[in-house]
Amino acid sequence: MKSIALLFLVVICGVAGWGQKLKPKRRSNGEEINFRTKTKDVCTMSMSGDEEMKLRIECKSQGKSYWCEYTGKPLVCRPFRNNPKLYWNQIAVELRKLPHACESTQVLKATMCQKAPADALMKQIAAGMEPEDLANQDKSVQKTSASVRGAGKSSVKKTGKPAILPLIKPTQHGQGSENETEAMKLAREHCWESLHGFCSYIIGIFRG
């Protein structure tokens, strides 16, 4: 009786173990793999979905960001069901060989699923670029150049046109002063003191 019970327990354990081997080892949703492309772009790939899976790739390169999404049914590939972690690692290896993770290829293939149906391929469905850093930099440069131009214009307006002073003819001015001095001298010599101003005026008229 004990031997029968022991044999039954062994059979149950064997069936449970065999069932676990057949169960797909799926990579959990939201798990990420980091990698660098051939041109040193820093990228992150994340997987989501169940039967039809989605792969999203986000990269940063020289102040700009770009992204793309792939979709496919890798579950139809038997090696993927056995080891999905290896599948995604092989995808990352292929991406490392590319200069641009999103523009260089429209279809991603894992080595372990080369002979799988076409549905197993991850095909690109969307892509985009987010040059936020460059846009902000361009705006700041434009603002700086505009402020410099504005300051230059204001300084030209303030100091560009000097005040125009009336021209003075030194010769005429000198002659007038000389005539006035001589007229006053003559007035002091030939007129009373109380009439100096009047005599000087008359003498100045005659001397012209």
Essential attributes:
6 strands, alpha+beta, six-stranded antiparallel sheet, 208 residues, rod-shaped, single chain
Number-wise, the strands total 6
Topology as H/E string? HEEEEHHEEHHH
Number of helix segments?
6
Q: Span between N and C termini?
A: 159 Å
What summary fits the major beta sheet? 6 strands, antiparallel
What's the helical proportion of residues? 40-55%
Mean pLDDT: 74
Structural class: alpha+beta
Q: How large, in whole angstroms, is the Cα Rg?
A: 49 Å
**Unreliable segments of 5+ consecutive residues:** 5-13, 18-28, 165-174
What form results from the Cα inertia axes? rod-shaped
Our estimate of the beta-strand percent is: 15-25%
Sequence of strands across the biggest β-sheet: 1-2-3-4-6-5
